[in-house]
Amino acid sequence: MKIISLVTGVIQENCYLVYDEKDLVIVDPGAEADKIKAAIKEAGATPVAILLTHTHYDHIGAVDELRDFYQIPVYVSPLEADWLGDPQMNLSGLPRHDDMPDVVVRPADELFELREYQLGGLTFTVVPTPGHSIGSVSFVFPEFVLSGDALFNGSVGRTDLPTGDLEQLLNGIRDQLFVLPDEFPVYPGHGPATTILKEKRTNPFFN
């Protein structure tokens, strides 16, 4: 299994492509659909789904263009399904973003359950990591985890946004991510990758 990280948009959000020889999933396509398409073409695998860790605007801006281009379903937490079409909740409509258009995405095709999924040849488990937002989830693949805006390299996600909760966030990271193997790479929604062991030992929110 392979992973490609693509930095997209003005907020420098990480979109990930996870794929094997045949199948590929797109995780959090925040912006720059053409850049993502080019990377998919180079990977040589066929997209089978778009997976969203959460629905803030910087993670969803290219969803509809990619969904329509590849004719694939979009998966999201039921707790944030309505946020896709709500600029206030996906944060694109906040006053400090007056210089950007509202982000409005059509409803998702599938609502996540907290369980293991197999899409094509790709297997992963959806685990709850709320606190940055109420419906935030992480995707645990056999060799690594995609943590969205829950756990970062040396930090954690913001909790001063709607439905944010720091205690909930830290508990979710401890219960769902820190139980993974120490050597597991962690691919976050922003910034460089890290490992479970590094964050256990050095992340200031846990030490």
Describe the structure.
- This protein is an alpha/beta fold.
- It is built from four helices and 14 strands.
- The chain has a six-stranded mixed beta sheet, covered by helices on one side. A six-stranded mixed beta sheet has the order 7-8-9-10-13-14. Strands 11-12 form a two-stranded antiparallel sheet.
- It is globular and about 45 Å long.
- The termini are far apart.
Question: Notable features of this structure?
Answer:
single chain, 207 residues, alpha/beta, 6-stranded mixed sheet, 4 helices
In the sheet with the most strands, the strands line up as 1-2-3-4-5-6
The general outline is globular
Q: If you compute it from the alpha carbons, what radius of gyration comes out, rounded to the nearest whole angstrom? A: 16 Å
Share of helix, binned: 10-25%
Topology, number of strands: 14
How many DSSP H or I helices?
Answer: 4
Listing every helix as H and every strand as E from the N terminus to the C terminus, the arrangement reads EEEHEHEEEEEEEEHEEH
Structural class call reads: alpha/beta
Strand residues, percent = 25-35%
List the helices and strands and how they pair.
Layout: E1 2-8, E2 13-19, E3 23-27, H1 33-43, E4 46-51, H2 63-70, E5 74-76, E6 110-111, E7 116-119, E8 122-128, E9 137-140, E10 145-148, E11 151-152, E12 155-156, H3 166-177, E13 185-188, E14 194-195, H4 196-202
Parallel strand pairs: 3-4, 4-5, 5-6, 10-13
Antiparallel strand pairs: 1-2, 2-3, 7-8, 8-9, 9-10, 11-12, 13-14
